[in-house]
Amino acid sequence: MRRHYVLASGMACGALLVLLLLSTPAQFKPQKEPTLLQRVAEASRLSEENADRVLQALGPAIREELAKGKEVSLPGLGRFRVVRVQEHRDLVDGRPAIIPAANRVEFIASDTLDGAANAAGAKPADTVVPFHYIPLPTQTPGQKVGNTRAPPTRVK
């Protein structure tokens, strides 16, 4: 009788072992998400080395075009252009200062890029807090209450 239990338990352990060995290759293994370089190489059917060369050359090429005063458009991404910011006043380290006029690079994102930024899974790298103007930074803003008088009931 004892022999039957040993034999049955041995067969059950053997069956579990066989099932475990057969199911191991079927388990889901998450794959790494491809890098930007790998995606560009695959989409353009280039080797990763050639795609890397293209990405390395893109920055200097855009810089040269902007130095000539041209606008650079990248399909699906947006436009780069040079804009002139006039001389203006601003605070520098809490003190008023005159900021001289200068050229700046402006990037105007395409609609598809804005859509990607506002997708459900997009996580912002930083959050910009809203501007709150305080005329006298050393004082607390007043607690003014609007007109609380009852409106006139007299009609002309």
Name the features.
156 residues; alpha+beta; HU Protein, Chain A; three-stranded antiparallel sheet; 5 strands; 37% helix
Give the gist of this structure.
The protein is an alpha+beta fold and 156 residues long.
Tell me what the structure shows.
- The chain has 156 residues and is α+β, with helices and mostly antiparallel strands.
- Helix content is 37%, strand content 19%.
- It has helices at 2-23, 36-44, 48-67, 111-117; strands at residues 72-74, 78-85, 88-92, 95-99, 102-109.
- It has a 3-stranded antiparallel beta sheet. The chain has a two-stranded antiparallel sheet with strand order 3-4.
- A hairpin with a 3-residue loop joins strand 1 and strand 2 (78-85).
- Helix 2 crosses helix 3.
- The radius of gyration is 33 Å and the shape is flat.
- The N and C termini lie far apart (113 Å).
